[in-house]
Design brief:
Blueprint lengths: L15 H11 L15 H13 L5 H16 L25
Length: 100
């Protein structure tokens, strides 16, 4: 069997507005508290945009990616604290508890 075709970049298949929104949403990776991380943000940023264009409104993959980036930064000696917020990857709590 021949190799399957490259799926391409989902951001090429969405509207300019959706692409701009994905870029703006994922720009959090380039801001504090991530900004102080000594690792290159490029792979994580591009992965975030890919996920947001592939599944707009579903940030599960983005949050997993952000957690991975934060863990890699910590392993490199630069812990990233306070990267979750109510509007970016809010912490989900059990038993009716609220992340503040």
């Amino acid at each position: 069997c021949p190799n399957p075709p490259d799926p391409g970049d989902p951001c090429d298949k969405v509207s300019r507005e959706e692409r701009n929104w994905a870029e703006q949403y994922c720009s959090k990776y380039k801001q504090e508290p991530f900004k102080s991380c000594p690792l290159s943000v490029t792979t994580y940023f591009e992965s975030c945009k890919y996920d947001m264009c592939a599944e707009p409104g579903n940030d599960d993959n983005v949050c997993t990616n952000a957690a991975t980036y934060a863990a890699a930064c910590a392993a490199a000696g630069s812990p990233v604290e306070g990267w979750r917020s109510k509007s970016f990857c809010p912490m989900e709590c059990d038993n009716g508890k609220v992340f503040d």
